[in-house]
């Protein structure tokens, strides 16, 4: 039997993909935030839509610099992801306080996160919906992956401290190699 669900819980059903970490750098100061509201928008060039609230410290850096890194952490990085999401770069240096490793990116000022199995250097491609919805469209301009950790499981936010880890892979004919 179907039962009404409070509308405030709908987002828990439509989780768009893995939790990612968004790094920015403004005036030489790096920051990182946990983000789960994002979506692929195009394949080539790769475009990623990201929701970043204007209440978030990373919002200003992303809006002013027009660049960021999307880092994809492995599931075992979950405790650190929660720590990142539970504090603000407005109040502290997350890299120092949380002991996060970083390394320079090739094309943007935002740092790469070597503890993540993939890092995507991005530039803002479209900011027309930023004021209304906090939606930045980012173009991936350089992608990095750790081949040794390519099969890492990803972390998926289900709301209020609940996460799922991606499961088994299934392969079905799709007409594409």
TrEMBL record:
Instruction: Name the PANTHER family for this protein.
Output: FLAVOREDOXIN, FLAVOREDOXIN-RELATED-RELATED
Q: What is this protein called?
A: Flavin reductase
Which residues does the UniProt record annotate as the domain Flavin reductase like? 13-164
Which keywords does the record carry? Flavoprotein
Name the needed cofactors: FMN
By sequence similarity, the record places it as follows: Belongs to the flavoredoxin family.
Which Pfam families does its entry note? Flavin_Reduct
Source species: Geothrix limicola
Q: Which InterPro entries match?
A: Flavin_Rdtase-like_dom (IPR002563), Flavoredoxin (IPR052174), Split_barrel_FMN-bd (IPR012349)
């Amino acid at each position: 039997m179907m039962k009404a669900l409070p509308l405030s819980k709908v987002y828990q059903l439509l989780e768009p993909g893995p939790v990612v970490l968004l790094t920015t750098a403004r005036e030489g100061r790096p920051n990182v935030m946990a983000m789960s509201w994002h979506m692929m928008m195009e394949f080539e060039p790769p475009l990623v839509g990201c929701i970043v609230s204007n209440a978030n410290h990373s919002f200003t850096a992303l809006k002013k610099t027009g660049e960021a890194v999307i880092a994809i952490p492995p599931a075992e990085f979950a405790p650190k992801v929660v720590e990142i999401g539970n504090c603000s770069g407005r109040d502290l240096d997350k890299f120092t306080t949380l002991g996060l490793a970083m390394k320079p990116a090739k094309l943007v000022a935002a740092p790469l996160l070597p503890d993540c199995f993939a890092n995507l250097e991005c530039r803002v491609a479209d900011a027309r919906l930023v004021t209304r919805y906090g939606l930045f469209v980012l173009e991936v301009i350089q992608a990095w992956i750790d081949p040794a950790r390519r099969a890492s499981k990803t972390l998926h936010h289900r709301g209020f401290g609940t996460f799922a880890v991606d499961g088994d892979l299934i392969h079905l004919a799709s007409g594409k190699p």
